[in-house]
Amino acid sequence: MIFSESLKKNQDFQRVYRAADSRANRYLVLYRLENGLSKNRIGISVSKKVGNSVVRHHMCRLIRESYRLNEKSLKPGYDLVVVVRPLAKSRSYREIESALLHLMKLQNLVQELSSENKDEKNLNRND
């Protein structure tokens, strides 16, 4: 993750849960809190209700990769916490990525791309 750090401490997660704005869909919940920094920090929470450790780690990797591939299009300066819901465990990467992007758009985290960036993004997808 080029522009981001991970949230690791319980107190950071608790601060985001208490004061943040949240949005949810069938598979994920996204909490967003301004952090006053020039970068985003992301934390991922997968409870034991989702599955065993292999399943939980797999979901964490899917979320992290979805975020990494789309972080250039996000506004900086937020602490984000993604909570995985139990329905997500049987979903594909594309469905998880779509759910994450949906929540990011609802939270107004996606910035408009300039025409140069759109052309570059289209070229990268065609490779």
Automatic annotation (TrEMBL):
**Coiled coil (residue ranges):** 96-126
> Which is a GO BP term held by this UniProt record?
tRNA 5'-leader removal
The GO molecular function terms of this record are:
3'-tRNA processing endoribonuclease activity; ribonuclease P activity; tRNA binding
Report the superkingdom from the record. Bacteria
**E.C. number:** 3.1.26.5
Keywords per UniProt: Coiled coil, Endonuclease, Hydrolase, Nuclease, RNA-binding, tRNA processing
- Which GO cellular component term is one of those annotated? ribonuclease P complex
This enzyme catalyses: Endonucleolytic cleavage of RNA, removing 5'-extranucleotides from tRNA precursor
For this protein, the record's InterPro entries field holds:
Ribosomal_Su5_D2-typ_SF, Ribsml_uS5_D2-typ_fold_subgr, RNase_P
Under the heading Gene3D superfamilies, the entry gives: 3.30.230.10
Q: What does this protein do?
A: RNaseP catalyzes the removal of the 5'-leader sequence from pre-tRNA to produce the mature 5'-terminus. It can also cleave other RNA substrates such as 4.5S RNA. The protein component plays an auxiliary but essential role in vivo by binding to the 5'-leader sequence and broadening the substrate specificity of the ribozyme.
Q: How does it assemble?
A: Consists of a catalytic RNA component (M1 or rnpB) and a protein subunit.
Give the UniProt family note.
Belongs to the RnpA family.
User: This chain belongs to which protein, by name?
Assistant: Ribonuclease P protein component
